[in-house]
UniProtKB/TrEMBL annotation:
One of its GO terms (molecular function) is DNA-binding transcription factor activity. The keyword Translocase does not apply. Pfam families: LacI, Peripla_BP_3. This is HTH lacI-type domain-containing protein. Residues 2-57 form the HTH lacI-type domain. SUPFAM superfamilies: lambda repressor-like DNA-binding domains, Periplasmic binding protein-like I. Keywords: DNA-binding, Transcription, Transcription regulation. The keyword Cell inner membrane does not apply.
Length: 347
């Protein structure tokens, strides 16, 4: 069955561009030739969008002007599919309701609050902070945050408990005999809407790692490697740094699968075997994780479902629900071949 990624490859465009073309996103700025090419490839591959639901209360939503704010650029979406998957989930579920996004705003463009004018509802993807008293923000009737919960008594939100997910990964490693465990991650920022301003936040994965390892008496500050972001390049550079320290842990928790890809490369270049010498657990379970060599053990984050859940929360609010809801989407440990039982491996 053809996927959006297949269409993107054959059309020589990004997956986000394919998604927006197929969903008739009027705010997308591409040539008519590109739109035509994407649609022709999709037709050739017999790709079909999910069928729209028959929704009894569709008329309640059809006149709504729905805005989508996402913190990152399309380039970042392609490098780290986590946010792309959330956005696609939003688009897919809106399509089920016979709806589409009226306006896409990316924090990276530093749009002013005036860009919110005329919107009835808003879905915000990523850690973006707002001036809640700004008149353009106040006039929006319904707002759902995804991947961030600024005030769960006021706003609906969809999040992941990354601390709990990290405990799952660490349980798995300790059960397999690992006591020397490192952490590779990036820096989390809370971005201020409408400006370049932002503040560093404690990554919940790192917080969970520190808390868990301290509780076991196993925490080692020297085994923490934190970069500016969660990209493949940063994962590569941080693992190179860990290798150069000549005191390599027997296992690593890596805060994103793209970072794990870079870490794999660094270990391969150093002639260090995965999992025989170093076990790896990633985060996200992106498509390529199962095809890595060896296939990556990772925490599956249901990012696409997070986007869909945001639309359903919006629908509930528009149809009369008064109490704000905070939905915590569960995660799942996917065990593959990048982790090994240290006891059995040493026999």
């Amino acid at each position: 069955m053809a996927t959006i990624k297949d269409i993107a490859k054959l059309s020589n465009v990004s997956t986000s561009t394919v998604s927006r073309v197929l969903n008739n996103d009027s705010s997308l700025s591409v040539t008519e030739e590109t739109r035509k090419k994407v649609n022709e490839v999709a037709e050739k591959l017999q790709y079909t969008l999910p069928q729209r639901k028959s929704v009894k209360k569709q008329h309640e939503l059809k006149d709504m002007k729905i805005g989508l704010i996402i913190y990152c650029s399309e380039k970042v979406e392609d490098e780290d599919p986590y946010f792309l998957s959330i956005r696609q989930g939003v688009e897919q579920e809106l399509y089920h309701y016979g709806l589409e996004i009226s306006k896409v705003i990316r924090w990276i463009n530093y749009d002013s609050y005036e860009s919110l004018n005329g919107l009835d509802s808003l879905i915000v993807i990523g850690k973006i902070d707002f001036d809640f008293l700004n008149p353009f923000f106040v006039q929006i009737q319904n707002i759902v945050f995804v991947d961030y919960s600024p005030n769960d008594e006021v706003f609906d939100s969809v999040i992941v408990d990354f601390e709990k997910a990290t405990y799952k990964a660490l349980d798995h490693l300790l059960e397999n005999g690992h006591a020397s465990i490192g952490f590779i991650g990036g820096t989390v920022f809370l971005h201020q809407f409408g400006s370049k301003a932002g503040s560093k936040q404690m990554d919940k994965r790192l917080k969970g790692f520190r808390k868990y390892m301290e509780s076991k008496g196993l925490f080692n500050e020297d085994h923490l490697y934190i970069g500016d972001n969660f990209t493949t390049q940063t994962g590569y550079e941080l693992m190179k740094k860990a290798i150069s320290n000549n005191c390599l842990p027997t296992a690593f928790i890596i805060a994103s699968d793209p970072m794990a890809i870079g870490a794999y490369r660094a270990l391969e270049e150093a002639g260090i075997s995965i999992p025989n010498e170093v076990s790896i657990v990633g985060f996200d379970d992106i498509t390529i994780a199962q095809y890595m060599t060896p296939p990556l053990t990772t925490i599956k984050v249901y990012s696409n479902e997070m986007g869909k859940a945001a639309v359903r929360l919006l629908d509930e609010k528009l149809n009369g629900r008064e109490v704000s809801m905070k939905l915590v989407v569960p995660t799942k440990l996917i065990i593959r071949q990048s982790t090994v039982n240290k006891f059995e491996n040493n026999r």
